[in-house]
């Protein structure tokens, strides 16, 4: 699952992003409404967490534009506006749920899970590259039919590589997405996790899928020898 957080409060956005990462869920953050809308319109996100009071464009107009264009990505409105008319307006505008700040992350995560099990948008997503298979809903990874015992961070890292299979992903981009950190101050965190991931994904198998592109980053692909 890839989630877009549209939230102008930096601390709140960081809190949500960190909580999601602990469950192995990837997320991007947009700090103003216009950026949030443009990102959401790409259609690459599986879920949207949306504030109402945003710079440049408010949450009401974002959800209105998405639904007008028939983009049915699930949306949770997360806002300080707790009056009943605001709640009603949110639900009537096409959002899937409405939460009021302050909030507990455990409740937000539970609501994401509940919404993600509903209807056609909740179909199980399985990604495959060669004999590697990722069941995103079940959080299960296998290679050649053998289950890989991955930590949440390793699963998130592998998911990012598989989603962009064949594409060289820069080191900085990986660290930003998985750890939400400055790569310069955490130079070895990616190397450590990548070694551990390769030990599980590649070392037991003859064909290697994770490749280093020296000076740039990593790519996951099946290469013809």
From TrEMBL:
InterPro entries: CheY-like_superfamily (IPR011006), CusR-like (IPR006291), OmpR/PhoB-type_DNA-bd (IPR001867), Sig_transdc_resp-reg_receiver (IPR001789), WalR-like (IPR039420), WH-like_DNA-bd_sf (IPR036388)
A Gene Ontology molecular function term of the record: phosphorelay response regulator activity
Matching SUPFAM superfamilies: CheY-like (SSF52172)
Domain OmpR/PhoB-type: 124-222
Pfam families from the UniProt entry: Response_reg, Trans_reg_C
Every Response regulatory domain range: 2-116
Gene Ontology CC annotations of this record: cytosol; protein-DNA complex
Key word Transcription regulation present: yes
Modified residues (4-aspartylphosphate): 51
Keyword entries, A-Z: DNA-binding, Phosphoprotein, Transcription, Transcription regulation, Two-component regulatory system
Residue ranges for the DNA-binding region feature of this UniProt entry: 124-222
GO biological process, one term: regulation of DNA-templated transcription
The keyword Acetylation appears for this protein: no
Protein name from the UniProt record: Heavy metal response regulator transcription factor
């Amino acid at each position: 699952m890839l989630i877009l957080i549209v939230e102008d409060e930096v601390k709140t956005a960081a809190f949500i992003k960190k909580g999601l990462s602990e469950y192995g869920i990837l997320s991007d953050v947009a700090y103003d409404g216009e950026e949030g809308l443009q990102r959401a319109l790409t259609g690459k996100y599986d879920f949207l967490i949306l504030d109402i009071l945003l710079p440049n464009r408010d949450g009401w107009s974002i959800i209105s534009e998405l639904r007008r264009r028939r983009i049915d990505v699930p949306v949770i409105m997360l806002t300080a506006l707790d009056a009943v008319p605001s709640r009603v307006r949110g639900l009537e505008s096409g959002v899937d749920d409405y939460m009021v700040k302050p909030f507990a992350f455990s409740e937000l995560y539970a609501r994401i899970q509940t919404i993600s099990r509903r209807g056609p948008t909740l179909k199980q997503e399985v990604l495959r590259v060669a004999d590697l298979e990722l069941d995103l809903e079940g959080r299960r990874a296998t290679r050649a039919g053998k289950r890989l015992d991955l930590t949440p961070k390793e699963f998130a890292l592998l998911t990012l590589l598989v989603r962009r299979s064949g594409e060289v992903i820069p080191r900085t981009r990986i660290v930003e997405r998985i750890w939400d950190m400055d790569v310069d101050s955490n130079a070895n965190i990616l190397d450590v996790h990548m070694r551990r991931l390769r030990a599980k994904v590649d070392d037991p198998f003859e064909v290697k899928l994770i490749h280093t592109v020296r000076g740039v980053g990593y790519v996951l692909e099946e290469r013809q020898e």
